[in-house]
Amino acid sequence: MLFGAVVRMDLENNREELRRMVASLLRHVERCDRAGIRFLPRSQPSASEEKVAEDLLEGTEGNLFSDYAAAYRAKSLKELRAAIGDCRRCKLWPGRAHLVFGVGNPQAKLMFIGEGPGRDEDLQGEPFVGRAGQLLTDIITKGMGLKREDVYIANVIKCRPPENRNPEPDEVDSCEPFLKKQIELVRPQIIVALGKFAVQTLLRSKAPITRLRGIWHDYHGIKLMPTFHPAYLLRNPGDKKLVWEDIKKVLKGLRAPAA
Ligand code: URA
Hints:
This protein has about 260 residues and is an alpha/beta fold. The chain has a domain at about 95-255: Uracil-DNA glycosylase-like domain (Uracil-DNA Glycosylase, subunit E, 3-Layer(aba) Sandwich), CATH 3.40.470. The chain has eleven helices and six strands. It has helices at about 1-35, 45-60, 70-75, 75-85, 120-125, 130-145, 170-185, 195-205, 210, 230-235, 240-255; strands spanning about 105, 110-115, 150-155, 190-195, 215-220, 220-225. It has a six-stranded mixed beta sheet with strand order 1-3-2-4-6-5, sandwiched between helices. The longest helix is centred in the first third of the chain and has 33 residues, at about 1-35. The protein is elongated, with a radius of gyration of 24 Å. The model has no long low-confidence stretch (mean pLDDT about 85). Uracil (URA) binds near residues 130, 132 and 133.
C-alpha cells in the first residue's frame, strides 16, 4: 500500500516535471520561431551548420536566448534602456538608488565615457553631476564651446560600486554589453575615454593612462581619445593643461570630415 502511494507520488512528480519540460520546450520553439530560426542542427552538425548555429547564438546579435537578447535587438537608446530594466545581472543592484544609464544627444558626434556613477550620480540618476561632473561640464561648455546636451555621456558600469571602489571584472562583464550597444546606437565620430579605468576597459589594455592619453586609438572603427579623469584633475590641477592638449585634438578631430 505504501509502495503504491510512493509510485503514485513519483508518477505525479514525473508528470509535473514532464509538463514543465514541455512548456519550457514550447517557449523555446516559439522564441526560435520569432527569431526566424526554422531548423536546429543535427547531433553531428556539418562545419557550416555549426557556424550558422554559432552565429545565431553568439554572433553580433548576441545570444538570442540570453537575458541580453532584448538589449542586443534594441533599435534606440530608449529601447535599450527598457531592455536593461530593473537590472539585477550583477551584485551591485542592491546598493543602488538609480541605475545611471546615460544622458545627452542620442546622435551626438562626441561621446564621453567615464568609469561608473558616484554618490551624486547614483542619487540623481545622471552621469557626471557631482564635483568631477561639474569640471567635465566646464570642459564641454567653457573649453569646447559646446552644450552638455550636444554630447552624449555614459559610464562603463551603470550602478555605483560600494564606497566608490573600482568596478570588479564580473561587474564590468555584466554591464559592458550595454555600453557597447549605447556606442553602437549613438555611433559618435569621437569617443573621449575619461580616466584609467574607462580607457583600459575600452582598449583592453593594461598600459598606464600616462602612456595611452593624448594619442588617437581605434575603438571598433571609432576614434578614441583617452584623457585624465576629471576627478583626478581635481586632485592634480597641474595636469589640466595636458587634458586641454587632448581636448584640442578632439576639437580638431570633430572639425575633420567624418571617415
Ligand atoms: N565618475 C565617473 O566615472 N562617472 C560619473 O558618472 C561620475 C564620476
